[in-house]
C-alpha cells in the first residue's frame, strides 16, 4: 500500500499554510486511490492543549485516509555542507513515507546532507528544495524532485525565481539556502557554495 506524509509547521499554536498542505494531500490521494473524498486538514488536525507558543512539527501519515498525526518540538538541522550525488532514476514527485532512496545516500555521505543531480540538473537535497543567490536574485532549480509547499509559496510571492541549473553553474552563485515547510526562507541558514562537494 502507498503511504505518504505531510509535515506542517506550527507557530504560536497555529498551522502555517494548512490549505497548501491540504491541497497536496488530497491531490495525492486522488492520484493513488479510488473513491476518496476531500479531507479538511485544519479540522483533522487537533492541536493539543499541551503545545506552547514555540515552533512544532506536525507530521501527518496517510494513505487513502489519515493514519496518524504526531507533534514534536522543532529544531532545525545544522546543515553546513552538501555532498553531490548523481541519480538519473530517483522519483519523489509525491511525498512518500518511504525515504530509503535518500537514506542510502545519506548513510554513505561525509557531508551534512546531499544535493541530488538528476540527468545533469541540480534538483533538491534529501529533505528540502534549495535556492541559490547570484548577487541579485534567489534562484531555485526548475528541475526538482518535489514541488514543495515553501517553494511554491516563494515563487508565487515573487521572492524567488526558477531556472534550469546545471552542476557547472554552481560556481556562479555565492550561497544557497534550504527551504521547506519547516524551513522558512527568511530564517534558513545560508550555505557557502564552496561547501558543496562534487
From TrEMBL:
Keywords for the protein's UniProt record, in alphabetical order: Lyase
Name this protein carries in UniProt: 4-amino-4-deoxychorismate lyase
Gene3D superfamilies found in the cross-reference section: 3.30.470.10, D-amino Acid Aminotransferase, subunit A, domain 2 (3.20.10.10)
Pfam families: Aminotran_4
Keyword Lyase: yes
GO molecular function: 4-amino-4-deoxychorismate lyase activity
Presence of the UniProt keyword S-adenosyl-L-methionine in the record: no
E.C. code: 4.1.3.38
Domain of life: Bacteria
Species the sequence originates in: Microbacter margulisiae
EC class name: lyase
